[in-house]
Design a protein that fits this description.
By secondary structure, this protein is mainly α. It contains four helices and no strands. Helix content is 69%, strand content 0%. The longest helix has 56 residues.
């Protein structure tokens, strides 16, 4: 069995190498491989189609590129809107906190409650106009 395998290996080593070019003979020694000039083909050997024109690139890829750009713009606008809403909520919370602190200061400075009466009147006016 070993002798059969060794004979197959020797026979395969003795065969000339095949190359990818169709008409060139196969070099038999490694030095010929290094000295042989490489051939560059102007057309693809594995395809029967002509090379694609730039017009077909635009026809093929313009719609997907447009979709990706549109999705990117939509995502940016959505993130921007969300960021603005968070900022507004934060500012509104800060202003409400500041108003509560100022109302406490006014309540401390006005022990008689005249500001409380004004506040009550302002609430009645807001309720009558439909605002909260």
């Amino acid at each position: 069995m070993n002798s059969l395998n060794s004979m197959r290996i020797a026979a395969a080593a003795a065969r000339p190498l095949r190359t990818l070019s169709r008409g060139a003979p196969a070099p038999t020694t490694p030095s010929r491989l290094l000295l042989q000039p490489q051939q560059h083909h102007s057309r693809r050997l594995y395809s029967s189609e002509p090379p694609p024109r730039p017009q077909s690139f635009n026809k093929t890829f313009s719609r997907p590129i447009f979709k990706v750009a549109l999705m990117a713009i939509f995502t940016y606008q959505l993130a921007y809107y969300g960021w603005l809403r968070l900022e507004q909520n934060e500012k509104r919370g800060d202003l409400n906190k500041m108003m509560a602190d100022l109302e406490k200061v006014v309540a401390e400075l006005d022990p008689e409650g005249t500001m409380a009466d004004l506040k009550k009147a302002a609430r009645e006016v807001e309720a009558a106009s439909g605002r909260k």
